[in-house]
Design brief:
Blueprint (H helix, E strand, L loop, with lengths): L2 H18 L5 H8 L41 E2 L12 E9 L2 E9 L3 E3 L19 E6 L2 E2 L8 E5 L3 E11 L3 E13 L12 E5 L21 E6 L6 E9 L12 E2 L7 E4 L11 E3 L7 E5 L9 E9 L7 E7 L5 E8 L2 E9 L6 E11 L6 E12 L1 H4 L10 E3 L6 E5 L6 E5 L5 E6 L4 E3 L6 E9 L2 E10 L1
Parallel strand pairs: 12-13, 16-22
Antiparallel strand pairs: 1-7, 2-3, 3-4, 4-5, 5-11, 6-8, 7-8, 8-9, 9-10, 10-14, 11-12, 15-17, 17-20, 18-21, 19-20, 21-22, 23-24, 24-27, 25-26, 25-28, 28-29
The structure holds calcium ion (CA) (4 copies).
Length: 473
């Protein structure tokens, strides 16, 4: 079909649909599966089904713990559906969005909220776009009709609204991969959002990006999902990023399309209520939400006294650049490299606690953009150095001459010099037993444990004869 004929056909389809076909009806789904429905606004009837009960399967995950566990105080935002949205929700507070004030909104099933009108649009647009008045923690083709997928829930507090897309699947009724993410908006008076901010995006495990009606294959590729803010005047917006594949690569909010696991367990917060539309830089890290612990005392393996972590900073507006200063209360312990890429800079930091006195230390970062007026965000990273007797004992313990390889390891730890009567134990740094392997084993499968530092203990004839520190990578 020639392009203008295709265009005519789409307009024709739209005209017919908007008159007679309800979103998420059988006819609508049939046409959507055939690719005959393009992004558009259609008439919505949203029967909230009171018989659907709390799913209860969202749990706090990751270090940041920004996800609020679902409980019976949450309400279902809408019945299981594809492309629908909630009724208008009235806020008990005013929400400020780039100088505009709103006291009601719609929760759209496809991973976003809007204030002026609800949206059915299932293929995400790149921001800026003058058509959408939207805050999007993850705009993509969510589909909550599947058997094993979750739903969209919300909870109104006096000064905040929490919305959770809990283990949601993707079009067409797929639940082999599920995304969990949360949006909080506030009037700035609720400590549920870090002070000085009025929006929080929080992610659990993100597993898909794209539905089948947006050229997605098995939940990926095709049109990317969009994360960000767009008030709809074509000027005031920013992207957190766009995502279309599995993996953790991220090169900033623009440039190339990024990988969705970058978002896993992150909290990204910002202030849309300021007197300027230039947003202060965003700090992005799935690990740096709380104190970072580093253990000292290992005199045999000095490199394992160190902790490595990464942190990203984003302008987040297109075309801005960042200037960052980093200071540490113990400068000799900190080393880092910066990887700048336009609007985004990744920092790979190492704090080495070898011979450092146990106690609290900190890394202080000031990140400034070059918008008008320039905005600065301060990030403080507390570091706790802990003396660990297990580690200090390494060099003085009996050394049975057993060697472990590879180290770091991702799946199988192999042992050289082990005797057939030896037991192998894997413990965490608090001394908790994680895995054990009794006798006649030359290896230990650690593929299922979380990344981190562990201790391997060798027990021979009931005696602890050697401890070896390992890194699961
Ligand atoms: Ca959808
Ligand atoms: Ca993930
Ligand atoms: Ca990018
Ligand atoms: Ca900025």
């Amino acid at each position: 079909m020639k392009p203008f004929l295709l265009g005519f056909f789409s307009l024709f389809t739209f005209a017919v649909l908007s008159q007679s076909i309800k979103v998420d009806s059988k006819e609508y789904q049939s046409l959507k599966s055939q690719g005959l429905i393009t992004n558009q606004n259609l008439i919505n009837l949203n029967p909230v089904n009171p018989n659907i009960h709390y799913a209860g399967n969202a749990t706090k995950t990751g270090v940041c713990d920004c996800l609020i566990p679902l409980d019976t105080t949450f309400m279902l935002a809408m019945a299981p559906n594809d492309d629908l949205y909630s009724n208008s929700i009235y806020l008990p507070f005013s929400f400020s969005f780039y100088g505009a004030t709103y006291d009601s909104l719609y929760i759209n099933n496809n991973g976003n909220i809007s204030f002026t009108t609800p949206y059915n649009t299932f293929t995400a647009f790149t921001f800026p776009d003058p058509s959408f008045n939207m805050i999007a923690p993850f705009w993509a083709d969510v589909d909550t009709r599947s058997i094993n997928g979750g739903n969209v829930w919300y909870k109104l507090n006096p000064h905040s609204l929490v919305i959770v897309w809990d283990h949601v699947g993707y079009f067409n009724m797929m639940d082999d991969k599920l995304n969990t993410f949360q949006l909080i908006i506030s009037d700035g008076q609720d400590t549920i959002v870090p002070a000085g901010n009025n929006v929080s995006f929080c992610y659990g495990d993100m597993q898909w990006t794209t539905g089948a009606a947006s050229q997605g294959i098995n939940g990926f590729n095709g049109s990317p999902a969009t994360v960000g803010v767009n008030i709809g005047n074509g000027l005031d917006y920013f992207q957190v990023g766009q995502f279309d594949t599995l993996g953790t690569s991220f090169d900033g909010p623009y440039n190339t399309i990024d990988q969705v696991d970058f978002l896993d367990n992150q909290e990204i917060y910002f202030n849309l209520a300021g007197t300027t539309t230039n947003i202060p830089p965003l700090v992005m890290s799935s690990l740096i939400c709380d104190t970072i612990d580093v253990y000292t005392g290992d005199t045999l393996h000095k490199s394992l006294n160190a902790v490595d972590f990464t942190l990203g900073v984003s302008t987040p507006e297109i075309g801005q650049l960042l200037n960052t200063t980093i200071q540490c209360s113990l400068p000799s312990a900190l080393s880092y490299i910066a990887i700048p890429n336009g609007e985004f800079t990744q920092y790979n930091l190492t704090f080495n606690a070898t011979n450092v006195t146990p106690g609290m230390y900190s890394i202080e970062m000031d990140i400034t953009d070059n918008g008008v007026p320039a905005q600065t965000v301060h990030k403080s990273i507390p570091i706790r150095v802990i003396y660990d007797a297990n580690l200090s004992g390494l060099s003085s313990l009996t050394d049975a001459g057993i060697k472990v390889f590879p180290n770091p390891a991702t799946s199988i730890l192999n042992f050289e010099g082990i005797q057939s009567s030896d037991d192998i134990q894997l413990l965490d740094l608090q001394g908790k037993l994680i895995l054990s392997e009794n006798q006649h084993s030359q290896s230990l499968d650690i593929s299922m444990i979380e990344k981190g530092v562990y201790l391997v203990r060798i027990i021979r004839d009931g005696k602890h004869v050697q401890t070896i520190k390992i890194l699961k990578d």
